[in-house]
Design a protein that fits this description.
Oligomer: single chain
Helix content: 25-40%
Distance between the termini: 47 Å
CATH topology of the largest domain: Peroxisomal Thiolase, Chain A, domain 1
CATH class of the largest domain: Alpha Beta
Structural class: alpha/beta
Length: 345
């Protein structure tokens, strides 16, 4: 009898309704400082025409001393919360995707404090340019598991602090910014239709932000590596080949798995690394250019911030509308890449 009673209690505590997620708001923030191609050409031997023709980038935003990842992430999150019309005290979870935290121990708790989200647990997730997509998927699994109801997913990076501004191959690519989405658990739908994620550490050397490992000594015979980082190191040709090959493959597999076709997609939202990559992936998937969202001309590669920046801009410009189907993919250092199929709303 006791066992039956215990089983009944256990079953009463289980929610048999399928928990899904819905998207309630978006937000973004970029610093005020604008670094144009013309201005970069005063620093290194390049030109606006050369940069624009090879990358699609015309300008990028550069953080001032006050615009660190914590501040940018906070401002992006706040605008997403305002769109969602949430009481901040009802937020349960904050996940920050970043590779350039203001505090190496984590910047998400500082964002939680600035928001006044006293009931939210907050942590950082590092996956470079795949970071926001990985954070979105991770957060959605927490919500679907029933542990949390409302969450903010933030992508924010301050890559300007780690660029070699004398290296014309890489300094032209990167900028700073932040974007965020407000996500809610629901029994009414599941607007994260499907996803996939991949990592290939064998190719990880193609894109790095490595530690310097400068040798120093505490006392005789006790050595240590002092903490510091080298600038971003990238094999641009290999990263380009990786992206144009792997991104269409993972999206095609996801479409097949979820019984979708590219014709059913309203928008293709890719990590904003290079316009040629966006065009190549669109061609491979037979998605017309007018469905490919791009703003890297204005912001460059902001790493984990690119996808939410594009989404927020498109929502506020009334391009992305309720129930639109969005195919999205993040890709970059690791090497890592992933894809998700979502319905906005």
């Amino acid at each position: 009898m006791t066992n039956i009673s215990n089983l009944k209690t256990l079953l009463e505590g289980i929610n048999f309704n399928q928990i899904g997620v819905s998207f309630k708001g978006s937000g973004s923030y970029v610093p005020d400082q604008i670094l144009t191609n013309q201005k970069i050409s005063q620093k290194v031997n390049t030109s606006n025409e050369w940069i624009k023709s090879r990358t699609g980038i015309s300008e990028r935003r550069i953080s001032s001393l006050g615009d660190d990842v914590t501040e940018m992430g906070y401002k992006a999150a706040l605008t997403a919360i305002e769109m969602a019309n949430w009481d901040i005290k009802t937020i349960d979870l904050i996940v920050l995707a970043t590779s350039t935290p203001h505090d190496l121990f984590g910047s998400a708790p500082s964002i939680q404090a600035k928001l006044g989200a006293a009931n939210a647990v907050a942590f950082d997730l590092t996956a470079a340019c795949s970071g926001f997509l990985f954070a979105l998927i991770t957060t959605s699994q927490f919500l679907k598991g029933g542990s949390f109801k409302r969450a903010i997913v933030i992508g924010a990076d301050q890559l300007s602090s780690f660029v070699d501004w004398n290296d014309r191959r890489s300094c032209i690519l990167f900028g700073d910014g932040a974007g965020a989405l407000a996500i809610e658990a629901t029994n009414e739908c599941d607007n994260l239709i499907g996803f996939d994620m991949r990592t290939d550490g064998e190719r990880g050397s193609f894109l790095n932000l490595p530690s310097k490992n400068n040798k120093d000594s505490i006392i005789d015979n006790i050595n240590f590596s002092s903490g510091a980082f080298s600038p971003i190191q990238m094999n641009g040709q290999e990263v380009y080949k990786f992206a144009v090959r792997e991104v269409p493959i993972i999206l095609e597999k996801l479409f097949k798995k979820m019984n979708y076709t590219s014709d059913e997609v309203d928008w293709l939202v890719l990590h904003q690394a290079n316009q040629r990559i966006l065009d190549s992936v669109g061609d491979r998937l037979k998605i017309p250019g007018e469905k490919i969202l791009s703003n890297l001309e204005k912001y460059g590669n902001t790493s984990a911030a690119t996808i939410p920046l594009v989404i927020d801009e498109a929502i506020r410009n009334n391009r992305i509308k309720q129930n639109d189907i969005i195919a999205t993919s993040g890709f970059g250092a690791g090497l890592s890449w992933g894809a998700a199929l979502i319905k906005w709303g």
